[in-house]
Amino acid sequence: MSKQRVIARAPGKINCYFRVGPPRADGYHDVASLYVAVSLFEQIEATLRTDGELQLRLDESSTVVSEPETFPLGEGNLVYQAAQMLREHTGISLGADLNIVKRVPIAGGMGGGSADAAATLVACNELWQAGLDREELGRLGARLGADVPFALMGGAAIGLGIGDQLAPLLTRAQTDWVLIPASYGLSTPRVYAMLDRLRMGQDIAVPQEIDPDVIKALLAADAEALSELLVNDLTQASLALAPELGTVRDLAEGAGALRAMVSGSGPTLALLVRDAEHATEVMAQLGDEVGVATLAVTAPAPGARVLLSE
Questions:
Q1: Does 155 score more than 80 pLDDT?
Q2: C-alpha dist (Å) from residue 136 to 112, 133, 146
Q3: Catalytic residue among 13, 30, 116, 233
Q4: Are residues 151 and 188 in the same domain?
Q5: Do 131 and 14 share a structural domain?
Q6: Which of 19, 158, 218, 305 has fewest C-beta within 10 Å?
Q7: Strands 5-23, 305-309: parallel, antiparallel or unpaired by DSSP?
Q8: DSSP character at residue 50
Q9: pTM of the full structure
Q10: CA distance 145 to 164
Q11: Is the predicted pLDDT of residue 8 greater than 90, yes or no?
Q12: pLDDT band, residue 130 (cuts 50/70/90)
């Protein structure tokens, strides 16, 4: 028997390590990524409809949508696509009102859309009592985007292939980060296209593994060691498209961050700090002296999960 209302959430992510290979024939790129989920969550509230309709709504409490009227609420939204895909896969004809609470920066390099999709899959699977396990949901999610399976999994994981071949890392050791969201987004395909342009004529190898020292530092929550090992191949492309990111990155490190890096395809910056106290100090300096907005988060965070089911 179906439920009446389900609330689920899924985390955003940062990449502590991100190597990108040359473009493949299918347009994707092979990567070697070390994902960590952070304590910044997208939330989906799914309410049952028996008429088969899927209706999306952006919640007023969303913190990262500056122009709500421009936010897509139709078939182009990953929330709609995830719910529709689940229905097609299971043959379920029920519908849902889907209320979206956005917390992860949009087009910010933190997998916010993928987290939306993951939370929707978990919420609708529970709402409609579809009975799919996490593995099945992960296979469905991978069809929507390479980061969706990780948003379902959470924690920390090595990602190979296009990022969808995941191997979880069993760690509870906490690392502390400060995020600097941008007032604009960067299209992931555009960033990859710029990377290919910048690399034209170069012989780029297909990445096969993660630097073991990065994994060791993350598992030990050794922030000082980890700060020396963070790498993101998309940085040069993000800076080419948004040169001001370089200035903000330098300001962040000048404010005491151990390391400031572009998160994924950007333009969100992720600042590694020693602990919560250090995060507060860095945030205060950036806010007081530079006027930069910041968010403190921790990693790892749990993957997509149901918060309420009734």
A1: yes
A2: 21, 5, 15
A3: 13
A4: no
A5: yes
A6: 305
A7: antiparallel
A8: S
A9: 0.94
A10: 8
A11: yes
A12: very high
Does residue 136 sit in the same domain as residue 15? yes
Q: Are residue 158 and residue 224 in the same domain, yes or no?
A: no
Q: Are residues 21 and 160 in the same domain?
A: yes
The CATH number of residue 88's host domain is 3.30.230.10
Does 267 sit behind a cis peptide bond, omega within 30 degrees of 0 on the bond before it?
yes
Short-list 191, 175, 187, 207, CA closest to 274: 175
Q: Is 13 a catalytic residue?
A: yes
Provide the residue range defining the domain that includes 294: 175-299
pLDDT of residue 288: 83
**Number of domains the chain is built from:** 2
Q: What is the CATH number of the domain that holds 197?
A: 3.30.70.890
Contact (CB, 8 A) for 55 and 98: yes
What is the total residue count of the chain? 310
36 φ/ψ angles, rounded to the nearest 5 degrees: -135, 130
- For the record, the structure tokens of 286 come out as 């950036």
Whether residue 27 sits in one domain with residue 148: yes
Catalytic option among 30, 102, 116, 147? 147
pLDDT in tens, 176-219: 999 999 888 899 999 999 999 999 999 999 999 999 999 999 99
- pLDDT value at 83 more than 80: yes
Q: Which of 242, 265, 267, 268 is nearest to 189 (CA)?
A: 265
Question: Nearest to residue 178, comparing CAs of 223, 121, 113, 111?
Answer: 223
- Amino acid (one-letter) located at 54: L
165 shares its domain with 233: no
Helix (H) or strand (E) holding 195: helix 188-198
Does residue 72 share a domain with residue 162?
yes
Give the list of residues 6+ apart from residue 106 with CB closer than 8 angstroms, or none.
Answer: 64, 65, 112, 113, 185
Query: In a 10 Å sphere around its CB, with 0-12 CB exposed, 13-18 middle and 19+ buried, how is residue 27 labelled?
Result: exposed
